[in-house]
């Protein structure tokens, strides 16, 4: 048996904190929750506070979770968490209304340590840094995304960098009606 076949047969290797983090989120698969901006010190790029924010834990497997993030009538964003064998990646899949890729898509980061069952951080990866330079937003190369999950309580999505913080908390105690299918996922 080849090494590749053995890895596929065994599944992706991960560590207990990454598995627990995945399990903490995966238990909400098929459910959606309303969020509230609790920190946003950078106005001008996009105003999250004037729109209904909904996360939908839509697709879950042993090694990948897809969570569309709906901002009002904008259904362009999906967070993709993937166990890689060397950590967890977070990618931001951005789509146009016709389902095609947005110019700024698949940016994100990779965990650099074990994190915790309830919290993981994702500093920008090399692909993302190069993409931010290409798109003339070099300040974003210092982005770190954070996700916190406290089952039966809340889920938080947070973006930090020098001079910038955005945090949205989602109430896990109150599932809501499922939002529309995200763009590009029909």
Descriptive account of the structure:
- This protein is an alpha+beta fold and 186 residues long.
- It is built from three helices and eleven strands.
- Strands 1, 2, 3, 4, 5, 6, 7, 8, 9, 10 and 11 form an eleven-stranded antiparallel beta sheet that branches.
What are the key terms here?
disordered N terminus, eleven-stranded antiparallel β-sheet, 40% strand, Lipocalin, 15% helix, single chain, alpha+beta, 186 residues
Q: Concise description?
A:
The chain has three helices and eleven strands. With 186 residues, it is an alpha+beta fold.
Distance between the termini: 37 Å
CATH class: Mainly Beta
Q: Mind describing the biggest β-sheet?
A: 11 strands, antiparallel
Which regions contain 5 or more consecutive residues with pLDDT less than 50? Answer: 1-9
For this structure, the CATH topology is Lipocalin
Q: Would you identify the CATH architecture?
A: Beta Barrel
Supply the number of helical segments: 3
Strand content: 35-45%
* Count of spatially separate domains: 1
Determine the structural class based on helices, strands and strand pairing: alpha+beta
**Global morphology:** globular
- The secondary-structure element order is HHEEEEEEEEHEEE
Helical residues, percent:
10-25%
Q: In angstroms, what is the radius of gyration? A: 16 Å
The overall pLDDT average reads 92
Tally of DSSP β-strands: 11
